[in-house]
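Practice problem 4.
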């Protein structure tokens, strides 16, 4: 193939100066086997001469799509050895190269073989039907006592942030840490709020050393410092996993309280998960011991949970049930997975909607449909939906940012 001839024809086509014969010739060249590799080799020259224009937005979308691939996400999260990391980087480079080849090829083909008006309509239709739906990521907003706020996340935050000396951003776990404020007076330090959007999650280390993993579409309200307080108290709406540190004053333990829509959970040193979605408060104890009571109720109305106990409190009917469960399916979100064991399909779709920031529309009744399975939270959404479809119970159609559930 004559590469210079290909460049010449591409230039003329973009300028609208190709003759009918030259259009046919260019079209035939674009059908050549392995043309995408040839285009990749010519990319630098075409881009430098501004023959091809790829917007910053397109480049970012390509980058995001590459990051969303399961194999890339796995590499990003990998904590393996240096040798494994080198091998992983090589795999990522192959994926990026392959994706770049396809993007360039289809960009060239689309740009030069569709009339402008038709191309704009096609682009609009493609954007509607094939909107890029990416998995959630590490992002949140912290709201300060005075109402000002700071966006937090992989791309939006500098490496270290300080405000009045009471917190920094920790690069190691990509969360915020208040350990520097542990000596501040709890009465004057103030209260902050950490908010994760749909499609976001974040980690925080409180001033007492307690670690909290906040799931998507959740809110945690907490004091900047617990110093001098008779109890450590936070408020949760949504879902979070807690790893609570022990704290004592004069050899007397300082209780840790989590308030959630009328439920008050008291812990000493323990790990547990709380979920306040779906008009219920589901508390799952992983380690240690917790006491659950309720605001406005008598002191003798409480429950003690042991490891693997799960309590479900319906705060509308004010009824509670406690049973032993396998906590793996409750806490898998913290480790980067969706895991379900005979879960109602609506619950599964709600979790997906929060993480991928999409809407779900039901064209059929699904109350009797259950789903069991495990899949990475960083899976391509098409693959995820196909996995659910394999049960044979429903069909799932993605259009833009809406998933339609059908029989």
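Answer key:
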């Amino acid at each position: 193939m004559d590469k210079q001839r290909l460049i010449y024809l591409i230039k003329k086509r973009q300028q609208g100066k190709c003759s009918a014969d030259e259009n046919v010739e260019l079209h035939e060249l674009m059908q050549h086997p392995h043309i995408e590799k040839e285009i990749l080799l010519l990319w630098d020259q075409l881009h430098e001469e501004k023959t091809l224009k790829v917007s910053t937005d397109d480049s970012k979308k390509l980058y995001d799509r590459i990051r969303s691939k399961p194999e890339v996400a796995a590499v990003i999260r990998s904590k393996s050895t240096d040798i494994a990391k080198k091998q992983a980087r090589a795999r990522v480079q192959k994926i990026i190269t392959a994706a770049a080849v396809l993007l360039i090829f289809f960009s060239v083909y689309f740009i030069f073989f569709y009339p402008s008006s038709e191309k704009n309509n096609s682009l609009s239709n493609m954007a509607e039907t094939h909107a890029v739906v990416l998995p959630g990521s590490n992002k949140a907003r912290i709201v300060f006592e005075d109402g000002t706020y700071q966006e937090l996340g992989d791309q939006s935050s500098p490496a270290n942030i300080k405000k009045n000396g009471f917190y920094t951003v920790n690069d190691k776990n990509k969360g915020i840490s208040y350990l520097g404020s542990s000596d501040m007076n709890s009465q004057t330090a103030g209260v902050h709020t950490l908010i994760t959007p749909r499609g976001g999650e974040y980690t925080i280390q409180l001033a007492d050393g307690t670690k909290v993993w906040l799931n998507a579409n959740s809110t945690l309200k907490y004091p900047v410092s617990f110093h001098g307080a008779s109890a450590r108290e936070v408020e949760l709406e949504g879902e979070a996993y807690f790893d609570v540190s022990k704290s004592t004053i004069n050899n007397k333990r300082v209780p840790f309280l989590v308030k959630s829509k009328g439920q008050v959970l008291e812990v000493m040193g323990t790990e547990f998960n709380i979920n306040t979605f779906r008009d219920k408060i589901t508390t799952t104890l992983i380690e240690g011991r917790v006491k659950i009571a309720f605001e406005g109720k008598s002191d003798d109305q409480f429950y003690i949970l042991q490891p693997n106990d799960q309590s479900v409190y319906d705060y509308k009917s004010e009824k509670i049930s406690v049973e032993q469960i396998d906590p793996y399916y409750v806490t898998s979100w913290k480790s980067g997975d969706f895991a379900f064991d005979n879960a109602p399909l609506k619950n599964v779709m709600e979790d997906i909607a929060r993480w991928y920031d999409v809407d779900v529309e039901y064209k059929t009744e699904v109350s009797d449909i259950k789903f069991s399975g495990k899949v990475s939270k960083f899976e391509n959404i098409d693959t995820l939906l196909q996995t659910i479809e394999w049960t044979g119970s429903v069909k799932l159609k993605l259009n833009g940012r809406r998933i339609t559930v059908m029989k």
